[in-house]
Write a structure and sequence with these properties.
Layout (H helix, E strand, L loop, with lengths): L7 H13 L10 E2 L2 E2 L1 H7 L4 E2 L8 E3 L9 H9 L4 E3 L5 E3 L7 H12 L11 E2 L4 E2 L17
Antiparallel strand pairs: 1-2, 3-4, 5-6, 7-8
Helix pairs in contact: 1-2, 1-4, 2-3
């Protein structure tokens, strides 16, 4: 059995949503109304509808395979990755931790999922190396276009 492919596209979409709508992000709640944590946004952006409990939310509508799951379990299934990252000091960080800042999330996503997928790259972009082979003014690249942080 082959290991699932981590869903980097979804991870970066969740970060992009948080960046575009910071008022809708609260890492301390799975999901409550129009506010959710990273895991909650991964589920919502995949069509899941969360109950309004906030503390231990469940998916109440959306993709059939997610309905009835906790937000944590649904996000794990959708992201298809080990959401734990070992730091250089031997400690372990959890992608869904309530203590994560936006910067923490960016670093963890980059470490867990690798570089941002390049489905809409401009001509000449070298996705493996993360740089452009053509002359592009990198000072005018939109935020989050090249990195998770």
């Amino acid at each position: 059995m082959t290991a699932p492919t981590p869903n980097a596209e979804l991870a970066y979409r969740a970060l992009d949503h948080i960046d575009a709508h910071p008022e809708s992000w609260d890492q301390r709640t799975w999901g409550c109304g129009t506010v959710a944590c990273f895991a909650g946004w991964a589920v919502i952006l995949s069509g899941g509808v969360l109950d309004a409990d906030g503390y231990d939310s469940n998916v109440v509508a959306g993709p059939e395979e997610l309905v009835g799951m906790t937000v944590e379990a649904a996000a794990n299934r959708l992201l298809q990755a080990n959401v734990w990252a070992e730091r250089s000091d031997g400690e372990v960080d959890w992608l869904f931790s309530a203590d994560n800042t936006r910067e923490d999330l960016g670093s963890l996503v980059a470490e867990i999922f690798g570089p941002r997928p390049c489905s809409n790259c401009p001509p000449g972009h070298d996705c493996e190396r993360g740089n452009y082979a053509t002359d592009i003014d990198l000072d005018n690249v939109a935020p989050n276009a090249e990195s998770a942080s």
